[in-house]
Amino acid sequence: MSTNGSPPSDGTSGIEIRALTKCFAHNQHPALDGLSAVIRTGRITGLVGPDGAGKTTLLRLIAGLLEPTSGTISVFGFDTVRQTDSIKPLLGYMPQKFGLYEDLTVQENLELYAELRGLPCDEKKSRFDELLRFTSLGPFTDRLAGRLSGGMKQKLGLACALIKMPRLLILDEPGVGVDPISRRELWRMARDMVTDQVIILWSTAYLNEAQMCDEVLLLEEGKELFFGTPAELMSSVNGRVIHITGLEERKRRAHLAVLLRDERVRDGTIQGDGLRIILDRPPARFSGDLFPTPPGRFAEVSPRFEDGYIDILGGIGSRQSGLTDRFRVIPHNEGSVVEARGLTKRYGNFTAADHIDFQIRQGEIMGLLGPNGAGKSTTFKMLCGLLRPTEGEGFIAGENLQKAGSHARSRLGYMAQKFSLYPDLTVRQNLAFYAGVYGLSGKRHRQAVDEMIDLFELAPYAGTSSGLLPLGFKQRLSLAAALMHQPDVLFLDEPTSGVDPLTRREFWGHINALVEKGVTVLVTTHFMDEAEYCDRISLIFGGRKIAEGTPSALKAMARSNERPNPTLEDAFISLVEQTKERD
Amino acid sequence: MKKESLQIVRDPSCLLVAFVLPLILLLVYGYGMSLELNNIRVAAVLEDNGPLAQSLVQTFEASRYLKVLRRATRKAAEDDLTNARVRAVIIVANDFSKNVESGRGGSIQLITDGSEANSATIIENYVQGIVAIWQRHQAEDRHQIPSESGTIRTRFWYNDELDSRFSLVPGSIVLVLAIIGTLLTALVVAREWERGTMEAMLATPIRKSDLFIGKLFPYYLLGIGSTMVCVIISRVLFGVPLRGSLEALLAIVSVFLFAALIQGFFISTVTKNQFLASVAALVLSFLPNFILSGLIFEIDSMPRWIQMFTYCFPARYCVASLRTVFLVGDVWPLFTRHMTAMAVIGIFFLMLAVHVTPRRLE
Amino acid sequence: MFQRILRLFIKELLVSLRDPKSRFVIIGPPIIQLFIFSYAITLDVKNASLAILNHDTGIEAQSVIKNVVSTPVFTKVITVKNEEQVRDALDKQIVSAALVFPPNFSETAAGRSAQPAPIEIIADGRRANASPILVGYLQKMIQADITGRMRESGAAADTGGISVVTRHWFNPNLLPRPAFIPALICVLCAVVGTILSGLSVAREREIGTFEQLLVCPLTSFEILVGKTLAVMLLTTVTAAFLALIIIYFFGISLKAPVIYFFLSTEIFLLAVIGVGLFVSSLVTTQQQAVLGCILVLPPSIMLSGFATPIENMPALMQWITVANPVRWFLIVIKGLFLRGMAPEAIFENLWPMLVIAAVTLSAAGFMFKRRRE
Question: A300 in contact with B at a CB cutoff of 8 Å?
Answer without folding.
Answer: no
